[in-house]
Automatic annotation (TrEMBL):
Residues 51-228 form the Metallo-beta-lactamase domain. It comes from the Archaea. Keywords: Hydrolase, Metal-binding, Zinc. One of its GO terms (molecular function) is hydrolase activity. Coiled coil: none annotated. Its cofactor is Zn(2+). This is Metallo-beta-lactamase domain-containing protein. The keyword Zinc applies.
Length: 252
């Protein structure tokens, strides 16, 4: 089992040499299936089966950031029910990108507006199994995307105010969501603690990811809420610099 998880983690991310695989592994093992309240209006569902984290933002509307794999549907809905949220209560779903491990439960929320960057949304609309990695993850879920996320668009989910930050590299349509007032970045698979998303899948680009990380450096945030793994609070400049050093050493 340790080898299987270790292999899966190696396939997920490019990890900084300053951050050992063992530490990265321990963080994942600690999670299993867990639902955690991060602050009054913010929860995170940590998925099993290598599905994505699902962030639950509760304000004037209820929004989710990503929806994990379909195989995690029961655990996700049970977690939502535990805080009094039914599937029909969810108003908005924001996708960081189109990979199957981030969109698998989206269709469960039939009343929610579903949003994604156009570059990735068009691949979902085409049922592109290679691009979405549905072929690798044995999942054939292609939710209807209602509208496209735009670069620098502001999405109000009071008390959250999220700016769409376009960060291609992991995929062509990858985005992060930045809350300047709360100093938070929901980073999808663009950035983790001392690691970043892989770039060798369809639509990936090492050069674009490096450029995206340089752009993220200008954002002022203390809390990183990644697409997989634990929420990381700490020196984000140091974190990004470590990842950039690894990438530049690997590719340039």
């Amino acid at each position: 089992m340790r080898f299987v998880i270790f292999f899966a983690l190696r396939s997920l991310a490019i990890i900084s040499k300053k951050f050992s695989y063992n530490t990265f592994l321990i963080n994942f093992i600690k999670l299993s299936i867990m639902f955690e309240q991060l602050e009054k209006n913010l929860f995170v569902f940590y998925s099993s089966n290598m599905g994505s984290n699902v962030y639950v933002l509760i304000g004037k509307i209820i929004a989710l950031i990503d929806t994990s794999l379909k195989v995690n549907a029961t655990e996700l809905t049970d977690a939502l029910h535990s805080i009094g949220i039914k599937e029909s209560d969810v108003d908005l779903i924001l996708h960081t990108h189109a990979h199957a491990d981030h969109i698998g439960c989206t269709a469960l929320f039939s009343k929610a507006e579903k949003r994604m960057h156009e570059s990735d949304a068009k691949k979902v609309e085409l049922h592109d199994a290679r691009y979405t990695c549905s072929n690798l993850l044995n999942q054939n879920e292609y939710p209807k995307i209602d509208s496209y996320l735009k670069k620098d668009e502001i999405i109000e989910i009071k008390p959250f105010s999220l700016r769409v930050v376009y960060t291609p590299g992991h995929t062509q349509g990858s985005v992060c969501f930045y809350d300047e007032n709360k100093r938070m970045l929901f980073s999808g698979d663009t950035l983790f603690e001392k690691a970043c998303g892989r770039t060798d899948l369809p639509g990936g680009s090492e050069q674009q990811l490096v450029e995206s990380l340089f752009n993220i450096q200008y954002l002022k945030f203390d809390t990183l809420l990644p697409g997989h793994g634990v929420v990381f609070k700490g020196d984000q400049q140091e974190n990004i610099e470590a990842v950039l050093k690894t990438l530049q050493g690997k590719y340039y």
